């Protein structure tokens, strides 16, 4: 055997036993969307495991045919208040995705939003990081045609990269619905009022202050339930101070993490779920409301028009001074078919999302 052959033998990477392609997800679990998606993917014969943000790990673990699936890129680089560290992590993310491509893996991004809610496009690091992800992705998933068009317009993403997939419903992921009166009793809420609700993670982009102002202007038979985990202590104090200036019967505030049964009761206790967002691309909360037979009030922003139609909610002009107020009045005056709302939610199927994801790596 010649010296060249001996050198090749020593330097060639070891070839382990073959295995089926897998998805390395960022993240694979711990967030409701991922917890619902990847078990569905597994039923199609593709395992999803947690990825590591390390080029060395990519070179050692990722094989041709695998896929790296990124959901919220900022989770992998953004450290508020640490600009230099954040930029270094953007560089690491770029190297990670480039190394995966060199290994013969597919890079996938699900565009849950155009930019992170904290900082948004105002931060140069978010603009750069998004374009890095778009440039290095083989496929970009968007939850509806409107969302896909917005991603294409914002980033110049090639049409061949974009894949429209549904954001699956939550009907099978929480305890079954309960009657409105039963849910209100469980929460200690009196019956007899028209109750709007905001449920889930409570962050400034959801404009709770504006919603509280509008509800206070409505007749006294209207009330508001705000339930969920606050983004930070300062924001919670600001909302609590605003709520304290309102009559106690007009607003119920339940801060803290919501387990499955409590979340179910909070949604079932309201007459309509309100999403008064400042900016949004897609929203799992809209499907949460529909799955429990509740209509949605939301701004005509992002891909919400792909989910919310006149038969299951009210969309308003986010720039109109009285848009939110008029929408709250309208939803209270209309009657909605709860069964039709649930059927609408069921049309957003995780199985289709999983199939499109598996197709992208096969």
Cα-atom radius of gyration: 23 Å
Strand order of the largest sheet: 2-1-3-4-5-6
- Number of β-strand runs: 12
Strand portion: 5-15%
Order of helices and strands: HEHEHEHEHEHEHEHEHEHEHEEHHH
Whole-number tally of structural domains: 2
Whole-Å distance between the termini?
39 Å
Helix content: 40-55%
Please count the helical segments: 14
Can you summarize the main beta sheet?
Answer: 6 strands, parallel
What is the CATH C level class of the largest domain, in words? Alpha Beta
CATH superfamily of the largest domain: Glycogen Phosphorylase B
Parts with pLDDT < 50 across at least 5 consecutive residues: 1-16
Provide the fold topology.
Elements (H helix, E strand, L loop, with lengths): L2 H9 L11 E4 L5 H11 L5 E3 L4 H7 L5 E4 L12 H20 L3 E5 L13 H13 L2 E4 L2 H11 L6 E3 L15 H8 L6 E6 L8 H10 L4 E7 L4 H12 L6 E5 L4 H10 L2 E3 L9 H8 L4 E4 L13 E4 L6 H11 L4 H9 L3 H12 L1
Parallel strand pairs: 1-2, 1-3, 3-4, 4-5, 5-6, 7-8, 7-10, 8-9, 10-11, 11-12
């Amino acid at each position: 055997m010649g010296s060249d052959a001996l050198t090749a033998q020593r330097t060639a990477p070891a070839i382990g036993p073959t295995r089926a392609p897998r998805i390395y997800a960022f993240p694979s679990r711990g967030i409701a969307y991922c917890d619902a998606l990847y078990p569905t993917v597994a039923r199609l014969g593709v395992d999803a495991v947690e990825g590591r943000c390390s080029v060395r790990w990519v070179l050692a673990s990722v094989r041709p045919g695998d896929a790296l699936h990124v959901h919220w890129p900022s989770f992998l680089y953004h450290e508020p208040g640490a600009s230099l560290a954040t930029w270094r992590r953007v560089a690491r993310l770029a190297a990670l995705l480039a190394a995966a491509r060199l290994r013969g893996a597919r890079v996938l991004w699900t565009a849950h939003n155009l930019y992170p809610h904290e900082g948004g496009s105002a931060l140069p690091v978010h603009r750069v990081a998004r374009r890095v992800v778009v440039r290095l992705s083989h496929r970009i998933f968007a939850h509806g045609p409107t969302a896909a068009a917005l991603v294409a317009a914002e980033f110049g993403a090639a049409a061949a990269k974009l894949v429209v997939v549904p954001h699956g419903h939550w009907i099978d992921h929480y305890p079954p619905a309960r009657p409105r009166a039963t849910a209100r009793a469980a929460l200690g809420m009196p019956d007899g009022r028209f109750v709007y609700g905001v449920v889930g993670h409570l962050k400034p982009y959801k404009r709770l202050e504006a919603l509280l102002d509008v509800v206070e202007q409505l007749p006294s038979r209207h009330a508001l339930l705000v339930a969920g985990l606050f983004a930070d202590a300062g924001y919670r104090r600001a909302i609590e101070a605003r709520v304290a200036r309102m009559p106690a019967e007009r607003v119920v505030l339940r801060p803290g993490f919501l387990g499955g049964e409590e979340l179910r009761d909070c949604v079932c206790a309201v007459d309509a779920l309100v999403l008064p967002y400042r900016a949004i691309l897609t929203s799992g909360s809209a499907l949460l409301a529909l799955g429990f037979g509740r209509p949605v009030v939301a701004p005509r922003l992002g891909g919400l028009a792909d989910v919310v139609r006149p038969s299951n909610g009210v969309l308003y002009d986010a720039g109109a001074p009285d848009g939110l107020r008029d929408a709250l009045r309208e939803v209270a005056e209309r009657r909605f078919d709860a069964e039709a709302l649930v059927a609408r939610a069921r049309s957003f199927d995780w199985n289709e999302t999983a199939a499109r994801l598996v197709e992208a790596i096969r």
